[in-house]
Amino acid sequence: MKYLKGISIMGKMMVLEGCILLIPLLVIPFYPKEIVYSFKFLIPSLSSILLGLLVFQKKKGELNSYRLVVFAWGYGFLLASIPFYCLGNMSFIQSLFESVSGFTTTGLSVLDVESLPHIYLFYRGFLQYVGGLGFVMMMLLFIQEKESVTLYQAEGHPDKLMPTIGKTVKVIVMMYGFFLLVGTILYTVFGMPVFDSLVHSMCALSTGGFSNRLESIGYYHSLPIEWITVFLMLIGTTNFSLLLLLFRKRFKDFFRSSEIRFLIGVILISIPLMTIFLAGNGESLSNSSELAFFNAFSALSTTGYSTCSYSQWPETALTIMILLMIVGGGIGSTAGGIKLGRVCILIKNMVWNIKKKMIPDRRVTLTYYCKGSEKELLEFSQVEEALTYAQTYLLIFMAGTIALTFFSGCTVLEGAFEFASSLGTVGLSIGVTSASTTSICLLIEIIGMILGRLEIFVLIQALFKK
Question: Is there a domain that residue 288 lies in?
């Protein structure tokens, strides 16, 4: 593992994260009465910037890239919780929960969003937008380090889209800026207020799911708005390198990707099944298909927007939602979960092993994994990595489900749904998470959200790799 000038880079990250808290102040000219909240952002922001400048002066001291990434996220969680705590009606754990839920792009909330000032509504959405891109990605947009590649990969970005990391980061940020603009315009055209349009676009693209409404997307009762949201969720859950193929109009290569084909297959199976189960529960066929379509995409993309309450859903439909949340979105995207690519590799390996038992020993069979324009032979190291991650993820999911069920007193299915949502950074809730949820339950979900966003092994390598 390559070591970096860690203390100096830590200072730069602290300055950047302090600057992030200044952005919500741009809302004040549009809502002048909310200037009373400005100091709740200014004080922690300026304190972080000054402290970061002091730390930056200390040139000595080395840290491996994984520890730097974990520091950036951990410090960001604590710093971003301060404006929430300054509201005065939240405990420290609740404030930290809201901050972690924002930056990890989860979307679970303990706030009454209908009574929040606009500056806080924008703040929550902006946290998710930044969290979707990642702190290291944001830092590399402004500051290039010699060790940029190491930091970029340590944060969980596997692909270098351009010849240099600097150009790669700029391309990704430009793509997300473009889709943010498109989403905001489309939402506004179809009847959503401009402010709501901006916030929902940020949260849909980052697969975050924070909303300005308690009823989420269901508040608007608009099929066009649901379709726009699905479009933005799909963009957010798609691998950055595959998005670049779309920008370059290489549609054939895009649809050749094993990950995209697997995503289409999962959707074609899950939506009809959910429609059948919902229709069997008393819903009309048209309403069932509409509910299944939107909520299946929301779960698989790990966004967490909803159009209904899940309290009356049949257990069969809820089970499919849990499975979709566990599978998650694309590798290298803003989504959580085990990831489509890993699950696809495991299924390809399973099919290959079954085929081997059905053909003569002398016949050679090969399995390929397509990344769009590149078709690679599936190797043992890829299968091993995917299997190890999936096994670890499922063990954590089972442990978290048991813990949440025990401490909250909910049913096992409710505990599984809620912790799958936390660990997959989804944000859908069956009612376990609210302002009255105990601190121990919130801490369990916080641990799940952090493990899900940092993809487990980053934390392990930060803590134990020498």
Answer: yes
- Cα–Cα distance measured from residue 374 to residue 124, given in angstroms and rounded to the nearest whole number: 38
Quick check: is 91 in a domain?
A: no
Alpha helices, DSSP H only, in 134-222? 135-142, 148-154, 165-189, 194-205
SS3 379: coil
Asked if the structure places residue 156 within a domain, the reply is no
Residues 6 or more apart whose Cβ sits within 8 Å of residue 42: 22, 25
Q: Tell me, what's the pLDDT at 156?
A: 65
Answer whether 260's CB lies under 8 Å from 254's CB.
yes
Question: CB–CB of 137/53 below 8 Å?
Answer: no
Assigned domain for 376 exists: no
Which residues are within 8 A (CB) of 220 and not within 5 positions of it... i.e. 6 or more apart? 191, 192, 213
β-bridge mates for residue 370, sequence order:
375
56 CB-contact burial (10 Å; exposed 0-12 / middle 13-18 / buried 19+): middle
pLDDT at 228 over 60: yes
CA distances from 443 to 77, 104, 240 (A): 13, 14, 31
Give the Cα separation of 311 and 433 in Å (integer).
13
User: What's the pLDDT score for residue 440?
Assistant: 96
Q: What is the 3-state secondary structure (H, E, C) of 383-407?
A: HHHHHHHHHHHHHHHHHHHHHHHHH
Q: Going along 51-189, which residue ranges are E strands?
A: 63-64
Burial label, 157 (beta-carbon count in 10 A; 0-12, 13-18, 19+):
buried
Domain count, the chain: 1
Global pTM reads 0.91
The percent of residues above 70 in pLDDT, for the chain, comes to: 91
Q: Which amino acid is at 399?
A: A
pLDDT 10s digits, 237-261: 988 888 888 888 888 888 888 889 9
Give the domain extent around 277: 251-338+381-464
Across 144-153, 205-214, 399-408, 444-453, least confident range:
144-153
**What's residue 141's pLDDT?**
67
> Backbone phi, then psi, for 63, in 5-degree steps?
-140, 150
pLDDT one-digit tens code per residue, 371-428: 777 778 888 888 999 999 999 999 999 999 999 999 999 999 999 999 999 999 999 9
Distance CA 54, CA 41 (A): 20
Whole-angstrom distance, CA of residue 287 vs CA of residue 278: 9
CA distances from 154 to 411, 417, 462, 464 (A): 37, 29, 10, 15
